[in-house]
Amino acid sequence: MSEAKDSKARYRSFPKVDFSRASETDPELIYYKLFTKQNPDNCIPLTHENVEQLDVDKTVKTVWLIHGWTSSDTTPWYEPLKDAYLDLGHNVIYVNWTKYGNLSYGMSSANVKPVGEIISIFLSKSGIPADKIHLVGHSLGSHLAAFIGKSYQSKFGEKIGRITALDPAGPLWSHKDMTKQEKLCELDAHFVDVIHTDIQVYGYTHPCGHIDFYPNGGTNQPGCTDPNNIESSNHYCAPKFFIESIYSQVPATEIDFQEDAGYNIIITHKEKPAHITFGEHVDSKSTGIYYFETHSSRPFLKTVNLKINDDQDS
């Protein structure tokens, strides 16, 4: 096997997630902060005790932001995404599961199952209608969002409205024996959209949602390739692209996506492709795999009607 093929196959060499490694979990060690249009900067801490008296407009969407491994609610993408959603009139809740997400990668991966169950109960206690719940997770947080959705459906008999997965984690999760019940998939919400920006490295490679986007082919994102700064890497481009999409209309083109025996990704444009809008404003009735290209600096998206502020830190 050539060195290039070895490198591309490395993400396949990890074992599958061992859910038996999960920590004992305490619901009081998972934290939530509510922001609304009326309280854009001063959060309202939520607990299992006060969430049942949650006083927000439940006719609008509530977006739950879920960080990945070795991160927290101070991750750089939370605030600009929160501000963008508040501009749309939505409610935003920061989820902080750092107590269980900042352990070894294997343990943190296993923890998404029990933590997902705890958060699903919290969602139910909030009284927010299932169809008004939108979970946005990055990396390992994408699989946590999936397990929130799985648990919510199992316990309460309903699917949540939407999961947006920002470059879902690949290592351990890409093992051939991992089933849909054990990882992010299109069954976890009424609508699951996935953005792949670091395939075959930190990100999950294959399509796994109702709609999967592969900007620039899913790897080597222009302007996001600093090997010395993980938050400037391909893996962190997905949140940046998604934040910009809230203010824009970004066209994406339908493709065929394959990985050959040499682990090479082959993207083929269809003869008569569908065209849809990328990101927040995607048509939730659409399905398929889509491609678009980006600029190498902010604004990254090649859009119309863009009004992102240049000083936003995503």
From TrEMBL:
Q: Which GO terms describe its molecular function?
A: lipase activity; serine hydrolase activity
What stretch or stretches form a coiled coil here? Answer: none
Q: Which domain of life is it from?
A: Eukaryota
What UniProt keywords are attached to this protein's entry? Secreted
The record's InterPro entries line, in alphabetical order, gives: AB_hydrolase_fold (IPR029058), Lipase (IPR013818), TAG_lipase (IPR000734)
The answer to whether the entry has keyword Secreted is yes
Got a GO cellular component term for this one?
Answer: extracellular space
* Main location group: secreted
**Domain Lipase, chain residue ranges per copy:** 25-228
Which GO biological process entries does UniProt record here? lipid catabolic process
Localization (cell): Secreted
Question: Does the keyword Transmembrane belong to this entry?
Answer: no
Q: What is this protein called?
A: Lipase domain-containing protein
In which organism is this protein found?
A: Dendroctonus ponderosae
